[in-house]
Each structure stands twice: as structure tokens, then as C-alpha cells.
Amino acid sequence: MTVVLAHVVTRPSTDELEWAEIAVAAPQMAATARRYLGQLELSLRPGTVARTSDSLRRFCRHMVACHPEVQGFSDVGRIHVESYKLALGAHVTAKGKPLAVNTLRSRLGMLMTFFDRIIEWGFEDAPVRTPLFISDIPRPEELLPKALDDAAAARFSREVTAEPDRLRRLVLELLARTGLRVGELCALEKDAVSRRGGGWWLKVPVGKLRNDRTVPLLSPLVELLADWQATHDDAGTGLLLTNDGRPLNRHVVTRMVNRVAKRAGIGHVHPHQLRHTLATQAVNRGMRLESIAELLGHRTLRMTIRYARIANKTVADEYRAVAEKVEALYAEPPDLPETPAMRRLHLEHRRMLGNGWCTRPAELDCSFEALCEGCGFFATTVEFKGTLTAQRDHAAAHGQRKRQVLYEGLIDGLEEVRS
User: Based on the structure, what is the number of domains in the chain?
Assistant: First the structure.
């Protein structure tokens, strides 16, 4: 029997075709970019290299189209950068919208890093100085993490508990109770679960930030994992979770999350929202930021502190305390006493001072009340006894007990000095 081997033709990608066109128009620029990307491949993740290639390719394409006099990166000056920035600002996406701030940050930031590095590395095609500055990079949008509120999280949790599919329930419980990223979940190894120090732990593989970690497992999760491992083989994948022998991916996991979210009546939910929800619930119930950072695998607290901005209890409590006092300014006055004298005193609520009166309403506390008299540096002599006595009597007549005690102490002190 004759076996005919089909000749497989691999078509070049759009990225490769555009680089080929750039190489024809500006060979020096294309060669420098290829050399730089080759260096990145040795130390960075493929996704980062691909995004850098895209950013450089777009810049080179703009130079070829709008500044054909630029043959290499050593020819790039400030005027060319400003031209490129204007082009980015005028760009409209397929959805008819301008580029997002984060997209602008990514493209300009990678371009600035490129210039910094080829200068530092001594590339022949490097300019004298970087033509981009930090002020060219738009400020990031510091958005709050999109977490589920407590009510939505409770509905989602109930639906997960009632989920009949064992794989789907295990996947969702892991996401909701460990804060795993989807990529970390899909890459869990079959021996990831271990018992150490009297507790159960889950080893999370090297992920987005190039670090691994272990997270504690609660008893319900340990039982679900034990049941899963007892009845399912890894099919030679070496992975903890497989779907009919096939590795999981983020698309499969997203569909699992949304199927349960739809049943819970909370609309579309991205798997990463479960990570945000766990962190938000933890920080607002007293878990230390350092511990949350360890749980989530954050390298710096700057990444974790975002969750403290959601439903900040300290801010809420302090605001409510102040708001009650502010509201007193606008509240309807209570029923006034019948006699004219009592009515006048109620409206005034004056506090007698050494050189005048305080007319702040009694409903409003004053943290500065008798500030000077209560200070450790306050000093008085017997010649002010008349004023102090009048202030004491006024405080007693108006039920200002703390002020009365304060002035009685000052008067007693004068008597002790005289004796």
C-alpha cells in the first residue's frame, strides 16, 4: 500500500506579513525590532513578546506611512512620537469607539521601554535619548474590582451547592473559596492537594506573576476533591481537573460560571469576579491585607489594597457619625417650652465664655468646648475668679455638667493657692 503524505502549507500570519512589508520599506527598523524581540523571547512570556511585537509593528507601520524619511530607530525624534500619539488618539475601533486608556498605556509604555532598553543595551540603531517621556503615558484608570455584592454572592453560592454536575460544582467551589485565577485552576496538577501541619493545602502552579503558592482548603472542598480524585483519572494529562479526559480552558470555565449565575438570576458573571468577591468579603470582615495578598498571590500590597476601597466600613462608620451632627443643623426644632424665658434659653443655648458667648445649638457636640481651660498649659490667677465663678454658675444653670465641674476645679485651685 502506498502512503501519500499531504504537503501542509503554513500560511504566514498577519503579523509576519506586516513585518515583511516593513522590512522592504525600512529594513534597518525591521532588523532592530527583530533583534529586540529575540532578546525578549529569552526572558519573558510568549504573550508579553506578542504584545510587544504588536506595539512595535504599529509604530513602524505609522513611520513607513507618514514619515518615510525614518529608516531606523536612530532617526526617530520627538516630532515622530507626537505624530504617532495623535494617530493613536484619532484611531477608531471596529465598534466605533476610541482606544481605551489601558490600550494607549500599553502601546506607548512598551514603545518607551523599547527605546530605553536599546539605548541601555548599546544597539547601533538606538537614538541618543529616549524620545518618549513618562508624561506621554496616560494615567491608569484605577477602577474598583468588580465583585459581587453579598446578596448576589449568597444566591450564587446556593446554586453552586445545588449543582448536580460534580466537575462543575468542584470548579466553581475552587474559584469561589480559594481565589484562584482561571489559568491557575486549569493548570492544577494531580498531586496539588496535600496535608501539612494538621491542615489541607492546595499547591497553585506558577501563574501570571511567575510565582507559585499554597492556599488553605476548607473541609467541604477537601471532601469534594477527595471524591473527584477517587472516581476520575487524569487521562495521562497530569492535571487535577479534566473534562472527559481533556484539559479545562478558560472558555469552558466561563461557561460553567455563567450557567450557574443565570440560574441564580444575577446575570453575566466573569470567573475573575469570584476572586474579587472573595477578597472583598475577606477585607471587609477583618482579614489582614497581608494575609489576603498571600492568599491571592499578589507581589505587592498595592495590588491588594484596592479591595479595601470597596464598602470601607471605617469610612462608612465615620461618615454616619458626622452625618448625624450635620443633619442636626437642618432638623426641625423640637417642641419648645411654654414660658417665654425657657423658650429664649432653649433657642439660644449659649455657653458663657471668658470674653463672650458660644451660640452653637446644644444638639451639636463641640470637640473644642472649653479647649483652653482644659489645656495643660492653661494658667489663671485669683483676679479672674469672678469670671470663672460666673462661667461655673452659668454652666450649672444650663445643665452643662462637664463645664461646671471644669470651672469648679479651677476655682478650687485658686483657693488652694491663696491658702
Answer: 3
